[in-house]
Amino acid sequence: MNEIDIVGQVIGGGFGDIIVRQKSTKNLEIGDLLVAEEDSSYLIFQVFTLEYGSQIQDRMQEMMSGVNLEQSVSNAEFYEPEFVNYVLARIKPLARVLKSGNKVSLPKSMPSFFNKLRLINNVDLKFLQKEGDQIFIGNIRSGSKVIKEAEVWLKAEDVFSHHILIPATTGRGKSNLVKTILWYVLDTNKVGALVLDAHDEYFGRLGVGLKDHPKAKDNLVYYTPANPPPGAHRLSINLESIRPDHFEGIVEFSDAQFQAIRTYYRRSRSHWLTDLMLTDPETLAMGGADQHRAEIAAVTMSVIQRKLRLILGLERTEDGHVISNHEVFDSTTKGLTTVDDIAKDIEQGKVVILDTSRLGDEAELIVGNIIASKIFQTYKDYKAKGELDRKPVATVVIEEAPRVIGEDVLTSKNDNIYSTIAKEGRKFKVGLTAITQLSSVIPKTILANMNTKIILGNEMKQEREAIIASASQDLSEDDKNIASLDKGEAIVTSIFVPFAMPIKIPLFEDLVKEKGTKQVSGKTKVF
Amino acid sequence: MKFAHLSDIHLGFQKSTALQKIEQDVFEHALDECMSRKVDFILIPGDMFHVNIPEMRVQKFAFAKFKQVYDAGIPVYVVYGSHDFSPVSNSVIDLLAETKFITKVTKVKESTNDKIVLDFIQDKKTGTKITGFSGLKAGKDIAYYEKLDRKSLESEPGFKIFLFHGGISELKSGTEPEGEYMPLSLLPKGFAYYAGGHLHKFSHQKYDNYSHVVYPGTLFAGYHSDLEENARGLKRGFVLVEFDDTIKNIEFVTIPNTNYELIEINAENKVAKSISTELQTRLKQIDPANKIVIIKVEGELSVGKTTDIDFSAIRESLAKKNALEVKINRNKLSSREYNITPASGTNKDEIETNVFKENIGEIRLTQKELTGDEGVKLAKRLLKDLGQPKLETERAAEYNSRIEQNAFEILGLNKDDS
After folding, report:
1. Measured between CB atoms, does B186 come within 8 Å of chain A?
2. Count of domains in chain B?
3. B218 and B277: one domain?
4. Which of A68, B57, B68, B305 lies 20 to 30 Å (CA to CA) from residue B349?
5. pLDDT tens-digit readout, A162-190
């Protein structure tokens, strides 16, 4: 080890909490990655706490400060201060890397006493080489220093089918991270992604966005309810595509109300919504030959109709038709194939963005539910037919995830498609990419199933605790580390990485500048 | 003022003489109707012909009719469709354009790798500004729209019409054939009328910024399934549009073609014999004379093979009763006794081998060379040979004879032995 590279030396502590004295000319940071060389391997450590150390008693230090402050003595200090006062770093072992073959394993021993440490460099991280169909998450970060050459790539199929959780508070770079991940997803057709974009921020309707990817024309599909830009689709879903189960876990219907809805669906199938809305609640009791209808109370029907009117914008016209005033739902002939078209795009490994920014909460979730249900069912069918291996992994990207997988939602309402995917989607290559500010309200069983977590900065202690408790690696010492994550900085914890990796996510705008569509001169032959 | 909008006429598609006559009749009838209704111009956005150079018979009657329309002073504005498109401007459309009987509307002002600037053609009599793109095979024309300079088109004042040939995804109902569809947003906004071709059913939809998106559908039939739709009662015709500086009225003008009989039989879980009986009973109930008879049998037979139903005899008996044409659709008819089991593989060759291997045991044969691995090899050789394309210089009869001879050789048979 080169003397100039040395940043500290092991002086004590125990396994998982080793104490290092910092070299006086160096300036360690929380999160810094350090390396201790051994014969055939090297150990990687991470700084999790910094504190002062001194050879002088506290009372003496206090007195010296008094001399400085009260007697206006300038430059009063101890003889050879770099020996007397210093910084102690507490570090934890992350990985042991065998020099031959770059094999990474969990460390089970400690570095030798007085072992000297240096900061990590790109050569130490050679084991992070990209192999096969992988997606880029970010560059390894040591403290606030980014090691540009050390890129973190994860195997797309594994990561997406085992669900991803992105816990983040506002302003910590969540949207930048999702855009970056999707940018790399667009490179190949190995991942189909359904993105419910509640803020219409991913496509780049006004500024830069995923539309600027060189393969966007082939692999990106954008649906928006109004005024679609050239090449985008109008988001329109025909009422015939809606089934009663699409409301489950999203809209609160009582048992009696759900039963009434299902009765109508059984009887009228694709026209159930129209038939239900055209029913006069007052005449229900006189259901006549239709015994099932006679069993539905007038008040039940009124409540169902009111709820559907509000959510789907349904109105009954004077001439006995049902129309929808909603931007997305259509009662005529529009949007009959939207759900199938989107499911087909996902199956072909495309990224489908639905601009749901203009929809109400429930309408957004119902739209997502209709499409996600179709995808899930299609993939289940492929598994039954033995064709699943040939399909790309599918993921549903949803913001404010507790709306559908929150504890209160799952206990008060039935399971919805999102929780079903979270629980059993892995078997069918369908995963969730859930973004949330509140991990603590997601049930532990679901959190534990989210096998990759990309943790961004979070100032709420309760949230940090929930994340740490469900992480794939031991992050018990990382509370302060997570709290101090700056914008764009993250920690990746996953069953697919050897240790919790501190990363820096590149700025999406820089990515577009570097890799975005470039104009080529020439001529297009028009026939 | 008014204009007519026709599309997907597919002249030259029909193979039988009876249907060729209907094809010609409806085309002539439609243009006669346009002339008698004194339209100011006619729009045909693609697939006027089924191929870019149809047989001389078709060219002759098409030229004769377009000359009449030309002499009546009615301009015809067209774009290529995916069927009659020619990359070297060497089609009968180009010939008609050369004679000034029709006008191709795609006029490129500027074209680079990233941008296509279109110009308008102005109809002299009405002042209508017309532009558009041709339709290319496999939706390749979508690239045109991605590069289209919309601003120059959208900012142009006046009554404007855009011609296009392609499917619009927003207009899909789920019954259309598979293929490329483009989002409506690729069309430039703010035109008074979007004259579409490619979809074979009449459709008229309104959207924000796209006030009238219209497909008249085919005049008779351009796919075999069109005849089935006709038999179900779907009306065919063209669209007549009244306008001044905006659209005043859009009317679908029906052009009758012929009479049909449609016999549909569900064969699911039935015995082949009973399907034959049911077919005979149903056929006795109809008068097929001067009608197109369509027989559709679907489902999985529980007993018997699909070949146990003698469709040839049915066809012959209907022909004797003067049916114009008999179309038998048994694509979705299968048999439980013998069904092809799918098999997977990493490439075409492997899939073919595996499918033969999976299925060869299903057939009871005594000849050793037709069973086991030998049978698979033989089947693959035969399949490869039957898949050979026709040579450019080869006539159809020569091609048939060559393929037949090769097949006999592979099977080790002598044609004369039979």
Report:
1. yes
2. 3
3. no
4. B305
5. 999 999 888 889 999 999 999 999 998 89
